[in-house]
Amino acid sequence: MTPDTQRHRLHDVWLQLPFLAWLVVLWMLLWNQFTLLSFVSGLVVAVFVTRVFRLPTIELSGRVNLWYGALFLAQFLLAVVRGAIAVSIQVFDFRHQPGAAIIAVPLKYADDLIMTHVSVTSSLIPGSLVVETDRDRRVLYLHIIGVRTRADADAQREGVLRWEERIVRALGSPAQYRALKADERAGGGR
């Protein structure tokens, strides 16, 4: 094994440590045991899972803004409640059928991690569901209910792009955050 190969593997292991730790914690929570045996068995399972189901290494940005993270969480919880109420009203309004559409949302700042966060956030808010992602072009396709006009679809698209901006503010890399700030200064922010 060459020194470069060994260095690359060590770098991959270092990047995977947070995910490995999360899998061990998840294992311990699953069994509701915080013992040495559950830690060791969780570690064995986590190493097995990460080696057998090999995924590409995702580098974390290393940047977490607690203020924007708390703000994101509050806005997300409010959106979930608002979405649940809106869906309930649409379901029980027997006079009108709720319209539905599939919309494409091209993300502006997304890498794999931000795209995943935006996808999960959009799917957890009632009334929308990510049905397809185009990783190469950074496009999300969402099924949306409560859409009757093109303006409704555009408003939903803008909503997803605002979630992307909120996530970049909270978790984005420094380069993504600088690009967002530059767009805001240029008047391109939403």
Description:
Helices cover 63% and strands 11% of the residues. The mean pLDDT is 87. The protein has helices at residues 3-31, 36-52, 66-92, 112-124, 150-171, 174-185, and strands at 100-106, 128-134, 139-145. A hairpin with a 4-residue loop joins strand 2 and strand 3.
Strand order of the largest sheet: 1-3-2
How big a fraction of the residues is strand?
A: 5-15%
How many DSSP-defined strands?
3
Mean pLDDT: 87
Distance between the termini: 50 Å
Count of DSSP H/I helices: 6
SSE order, as H and E? Answer: HHHEHEEHH
| Computed Rg | 20 Å
Which properties best describe this structure?
11% strand, 190 residues, 6 helices, mainly alpha, 3-stranded antiparallel sheet, globular
In short:
This protein has 190 residues and is mainly α.
SSE blueprint:
Elements: H1 3-31, H2 36-52, H3 66-92, E1 100-106, H4 112-124, E2 128-134, E3 139-145, H5 150-171, H6 174-185
Antiparallel strand pairs: 1-3, 2-3
